[in-house]
Structure formats: structure tokens, C-alpha cells
Amino acid sequence: MAKVCLGMILSLDGYVNDRHGKMGKLYASFEPNEAIEAAMANTGAVVMGRNSFDESPDPDAYADDYEFQVPLFVLTHRPPPNHPKENENLTITFVTDGIESAVQQAREAAGEKDVVVLGADVGQQLLKAKLADELQVAFAPIILGKGLRLFEHLEDLEIHLEKLRTIETAQQVEIWYRVLKE
């Protein structure tokens, strides 16, 4: 069965974007590596929030050049009036009935491959619903001071993790964890 993996790149102080809502500074130090390429090849579906989806100035661009050419499930309260372009590999489904539904649909679409979850708000919902199997966090060599934190609004939770592996590139450290189920 497909694993559900929350994957994000963070500043050292825990932000997924800067004070202006931009992520570029975090990705400036990213270097592709074998583990990331293998994880991407084993991704069968992606769940993201509407804010993450709207990062692209042209929603039709997902079908042309998005790094994950798999079914996308966008969790939102407001689907767009015009459905974005799709292709034979990438379909886009706007899910309005919650994280559980989005993950269930993504698992079905992924088959034996993994589901990758992207976005701070959706990630928080995923952790609160106890639907995450793994957490993959890449740390960029920057302290942003302000922005959007990945691990906000989780005060009522205590989530235990088991380290699976650590990957070092010239600039970043990535840590993969298994989320321990109680």
C-alpha cells in the first residue's frame, strides 16, 4: 500500500516561505540527489493545498512542466472557475471535503506508489488527522526570521518520529522520519 509522505524544505528556524510568502531563497541551495530522484520516481500522486497550487502564476503550466507528472489532488474551499489543463499523466482534482478524502483519493490513484503531501496548512491537517506515514524535511542554510511555519497549530499533539535516513548535500541536510503510530 502507498505510503503518505509529508515533504517540505524549511529554513533552519522552521519557515516554509519568507516574510513575503516567497520560497525561492529556500530552494537556492537545493541539489538533486539519488534519494530525492528515487522518491520522485516512486510518487504516484500528490496532495497539496490551494495556496501551494496557486504558487504557479499559470495553472496550465502544471501539465507542461511540473516536476511530478502524476495525479494532483488540491485541497480547497474554492475550486477555480476554469479547470486547468491536464495531460495523459497529470490530472487535477479539486477536493472540497477534507484531508481524509484527499488522501484516500490520492492513495487510490497512486496504487502501489507513494503519496506526497506538500504545503504547510495541508501538512498540519495531515498530521492532526494522523494520516502521515513519513516526514521528509530538508533544511536550507538560511534563517528567515519571519514567514509561514510548517509546524504551527500542532500544540495539542505530540508526534513521535523514528529517523530513517539522513542525506547531506553540499548545502542542505535532509532527514527522513517514520511517523510512529500509537
DSSP helix count? 6
- Proportion of beta-strand residues: 25-35%
- Calculate Rg over CA atoms: 16 Å
Q: Strand-and-helix sequence, N→C? A: EEHHEHHEEHEHEEEE
Instruction: Describe the strand arrangement of the main beta sheet, using strand numbers.
Output: 5-4-3-6-1-7-10-9
Shape: globular
Query: What does the main sheet amount to?
Result: 8 strands, mixed
Mean pLDDT: 92
Task: Give me some keywords for this one.
182 residues; alpha/beta; two-stranded antiparallel ribbon; 10 strands; 23% helix; 30% strand
Describe this structure in words.
Strand 9 (about 160-170) and strand 10 (about 175-180) form a beta hairpin. The protein has helices at about 25, 35-40, 50-55, 60-65, 100-110, 120-130, and strands spanning about 5-10, 15, 45-50, 70-75, 90-95, 115-120, 135-140, 150, 160-170, 175-180. It starts with a strand and ends with a strand. Helix content is about 25%, strand content about 30%. The mean pLDDT is about 90. The chain has about 180 residues and is of the alpha/beta class.
